[in-house]
Fold:
Amino acid sequence: MYPDEEQSSAAQEGAATTHHELRYRLVDRLNNGIKKLPGVHRVLRFLADKLLPGKSQPAKSPAAIHDARAQSALKQDAPVSPVQEEPALAPISLDALPYPPVEMRKLIGTTEQMHFENSEGKLIFGYLDFQFGPAVYDRVFDFGCGCGRLARQLILQKPQPRRYVGIDLHPGLIRWCQRNLHPAATNFDFFYHDVFNLTFNPKPGSPGVAPFPVGDSEFSLVIAHSVFTHVTEEQAIFYLRECARIIDQNGFLYTSWFLFEKQEFPMMQEVCNALYVSYHDPTAAVIFDRQWLIDKAHEMGLRICAPLPPSVRGHQWTIIMTRRTDLPEPEFPVDNAPRGWVRPPLVDGAQKIGLE
Structure:
């Protein structure tokens, strides 16, 4: 987003600020006021740590912890915990469906309300809609649902999915979705996927990966938007297998990836198939070899039926996969998109948002 567009967006958001967002701002102001009274603040923090153990513990692991914890969880089949900490609120009308607070929207890279809207109730993915129609959306699993951008659009979609399950490793975002979207559509459930992430879930003891909390072949559509762009190679293999496990025989897997051609990097070993942009946090952005992705998909019983190039050159490819064998597996098109910058957001204290 360019600076002038961001200012315009901020002005629009300021004019349309909801009562729900004002509540978050008032809580933040109250919290800042308490901090000016050191004795009171220390007592409250002490009580919070006793009542909510682990909530405010700092991250203490270097970047290498990702691979070590991924290996550990692969062996242990670590469970996933649902976040149902608070009772559900009263039913919410679709006409009054809230938007996530601005600070949550910043975490997923877009703050404009238009990216959360679906006022006409349209099916949300163009390629799948044109080819296969609304049946694709019957049972949806949203891996990395964040603060509910796609979930909110799906709630407003006509027809609405008969079942929706969203998971995310940020507990505050899951809490918000369960409290503010589930009451409007009780067939939409949100679960905390407690795995380690240096930015969003730096909780000591959390594994690097964990199985999905659902059974085999339960979903007609699995979404992993902006997820495989932020996992290590071993994590990608684990989660690609999980995605393949939970889609039914006629279902689709909607994913996005950063891709490169490994053959253009002759110094890379055969066992290395990913590039990492950050030494501090390997999951900041991960770029995978295209042929490796094709081969891994085949190993999982999947075929790439739609490789859709990015809108900014070198950015996220949309890769749609399926178990169906009656659909062709086309060649990848050339990435001729215009050049530009789409950098991930940098937000201080990102892991605490929605928990205070």
Summary: The two ends are 29 Å apart (CA to CA). The first strand starts at residue 139 and ends at 143. The chain is about 30% helix and 15% strand. Residues 51 and 234 are 35 Å apart (CA to CA).
